[in-house]
Amino acid sequence: MITKVSRALKQNNVKRGDCILVALSGGMDSSVLLDVLCELRDELGISVVAAHLNHMLRGEESDRDENFVREYCEQNGIPLTVERADVAAYAEKNGMGIEQ
């Protein structure tokens, strides 16, 4: 996995000094991606930061995801930005579906 991600970064012209932002849901895919990028930080000379959007769609489960992300990033020294958005209320107000 690490080799594949390293190769993909190089193929996409990621270079020393670049900053990679990971949209971190707290799920397996984004968490593994963040782990792999952190493993490659020193070797590639990149910095890694994370962002999490709590869509507030699943009540306490959404809050647990946000808390997991906060704790994980704090424990691993990863800069994190967290925002909350009531997606269901916004969608209803604007006559949209929540996926839009």
Q: List low-pLDDT spans.
A: none
Shape: elongated
Give the number of helices: 4
Q: Approximately what portion of the residues adopt beta-strand conformation?
A: 15-25%
- Calculate the terminal CA-CA distance, rounded to whole Å: 32 Å
Query: If you average the pLDDT, what whole number results?
Result: 94
Record field, number of beta strands: 3
Query: What percent of residues adopt helix (DSSP H or I)?
Result: 40-55%
Structural class category: alpha/beta
Q: How many whole angstroms does the radius of gyration measure? A: 16 Å
Order of helices and strands: HEHEHEH
Biggest β-sheet: strands ordered side by side in the sheet: 1-2-3
Biggest sheet character:
3 strands, parallel
